Amino acid sequence: MKKSLVSSENSFVQLMEHLDYPESGLSNQVVWHGAQCQYNLLCLAAQAKIPEHTSPQNATVQVIEGTGELTLNGQVIVLEPGVFIFMPANAPHALAAASNLAFLLTRSAVG
Asked: Which of 11, 21, 93, 109 has the lowest tally of Cβ within 10 angstroms?
């Protein structure tokens, strides 16, 4: 597994300093992970898409920068800085970035 941005030696991180937009597609950095949850910093290039899929875990999305759309259970949600979304386990979702888009994805155990 990749090294986390936060560790026992470094308990904080400025996420804006780690935004890393690829030319196409997405980059994914582990911010922190534990037994019950994982935090990832995702950066999508403008016009990148993640096709519809599901996850067996609950998840949240916190938009940091950029714009796009998340389709969750058939509902289109406009993504812009400050938007927070809860995605229950097994909910179908897809994402399309209109501009470079960065968000914090938190996945947690269902319980």
From this structure: 11
Q: Which amino acid is at 96?
A: A
103 contacts 42 by C-beta, under 8 angstroms:
yes
pTM listed for this prediction: 0.93
pLDDT tens digits in sequence order for the chain, 111 residues long:
568 999 878 889 999 999 999 999 999 999 999 889 999 999 999 999 999 999 999 999 999 999 999 999 999 999 999 999 999 999 999 999 999 999 999 999 887
Please give the structure tokens belonging to residue 108. Answer: 């947690």
For residue 105, what are the contacts with CB-CB under 8 A and spacing of at least 6? 39, 40, 41, 42, 59, 60, 61
Residue 72: partners with Cβ closer than 8 Å, 6 or more residues away:
85, 87, 91, 92, 93
Q: Are strands 84-87 and 58-65 parallel, antiparallel or unpaired?
A: antiparallel
CA dihedral 22, 62, 82, 11 (to 10 degrees): -90
